[in-house]
Amino acid sequence: MWKVCIYRYTVEVSRVPAGNWVLIEGIDQPIVKTSTITQLDFDEDVYIFRPLKFNTKSVVKMAVEPINPSELPKMLDGLRKVNKSYPLLTTRVEESGEHVMLGTGELYMDCVMHDMRKVSVAFVD
């Protein structure tokens, strides 16, 4: 079953026409930001969508670290999840070993941090 987002609710559907956005659970390992998914025995030519290009630059840089160093894997998992969820977010490790997130503005980063706190509560910003 596919799930379609309608505001804050999700509705399960059995078929989704091309060009629509859907939520698919359980296939996040090979996907970094976006992907094109088809069935294996699809006979027609399949074209991969080009990545989205945005006219914005990251202007806010935020460092994060776990409160308890033993919870670093949990924080890294949270960083991976928000990196996939937010197309304009960039995450990286600085030369100093500091984990940083770069985003387009304060409100955007506040939304990212809200989701990080829901996913992983073991860090401070």
TrEMBL record:
Gene Ontology CC entries for this record: cytosol; U2-type catalytic step 2 spliceosome; U4/U6 x U5 tri-snRNP complex
Entry GO MF terms: GTP binding; GTPase activity; U5 snRNA binding
Lineage, broadest ranks: Eukaryota, Metazoa, Ecdysozoa, Nematoda, Chromadorea
Name of the protein described by the UniProt record: Elongation Factor G domain-containing protein
A biological process term (GO) from this entry: mRNA splicing, via spliceosome
Record-linked InterPro entries: EFG_II (IPR041095), EFG_III/V (IPR035647), Transl_B-barrel_sf (IPR009000)
Keyword entries, A-Z: GTP-binding, Nucleotide-binding
Entry keyword annotation includes GTP-binding: yes
Pfam families noted in UniProt: EFG_III
Limits of the Elongation Factor G domain: 57-118
The UniProt record lists the keyword Lipid metabolism: no
Top-level taxonomic group: Eukaryota
Organism this protein belongs to: Parascaris equorum (Equine roundworm)
